[in-house]
Amino acid sequence: MTLTLADLTIPKLQEAMNRVGYIASQETVVTLYLALRLGKPLLLEGPPGVGKTEIAKVLSEVFGAELIRLQCYEGLDETKALYEWNYQRQLIRIQLAKAVEGQTITEEDIFSEEYLLERPLLRAIRQQGPAVLLIDEVDKTDEEFEAFLFELLSEFQVTVPELGTIKATHIPMVVLTSNGERELSDGLKRRCLYLYLDYPDVATEIRIIQARVPGVGERLTREVARVVAHLRQHLDLNKKPSIAETLDWVRALIALNADRLTPELIQHTLNVILKHKDDINTVLEFLGTEGLFRVAQEEKGR
Questions:
Q1: Between vectors from CA 53 to CA 220 and to CA 71, what angle results, nearest 5°?
Q2: 254 and 279 in contact (C-beta within 8 Å)?
Q3: pLDDT at 159
Q4: 248: closest CA among 49, 46, 62, 47?
Q5: pLDDT (tens digit, 9 = 90+) per residue, 40-86?
Q6: Which letter does DSSP use for residue 173 in this model?
Q7: DSSP annotation of 68
Q8: In the chain, what's the furthest Cα-to-Cα distance?
């Protein structure tokens, strides 16, 4: 059953997120609810792999809305994010018109809907039904693009000189994510509700594993959650294990018919959660597989 904004409540949102396997804190649910109720973009900040992008996917699923994603990168400009003209087709149209004696072509002929290439932002504005606009890793863009972006998000309209002003018929739900690579402008933050997501604690990660990997044993779940939490909190790693990599590790262990961790299993599958050779060497040097095995058995990890 999909949700609608008309009957949205915090308990219904929490239940719907749980139903699709996203375990969220009360703070996350309340902030998300307020962003939806107020019609404001939600800016999610935090380290990579904590579930920021996943929130947009969850919204798409629980509201039955199309997910439209703008993946940001250094050098991204309006033509790649908003719209551009299909110059090749326009040129062919002009050449064909010249080949026919007496046929004329006007600017309106070639700057029409037929030759307009929608990019994610324009597509979201022109969407006729519910949509979730995900602007992923906005901190990778420059300040100029960011300024363009927050003005667009304020009005939810855009002017195409050849076609006029295009206004959104359905305001999309907007999620922006940032890994904190640079400080975002006050202008953007003023237009958004803000939420910082961090790595889950052991208890929460246990719930996530149970929700996303049905049938996994309780012992293996607890041991994996303890080890991953220890790696994130106590070692200086180039890349801390993400939630997705935790889930991959559990699935890999199940594929090996494991119902508990052993030093041998840890040694053979450590590369599932650590993706840098230096990180693997650091773990083996400071803890070793026996050390990680002891961490997995510690009751204080509960």
A1: 135
A2: no
A3: 85
A4: 49
A5: 999 999 999 999 999 999 999 999 999 999 999 999 988 899 999 99
A6: E
A7: E
A8: 87
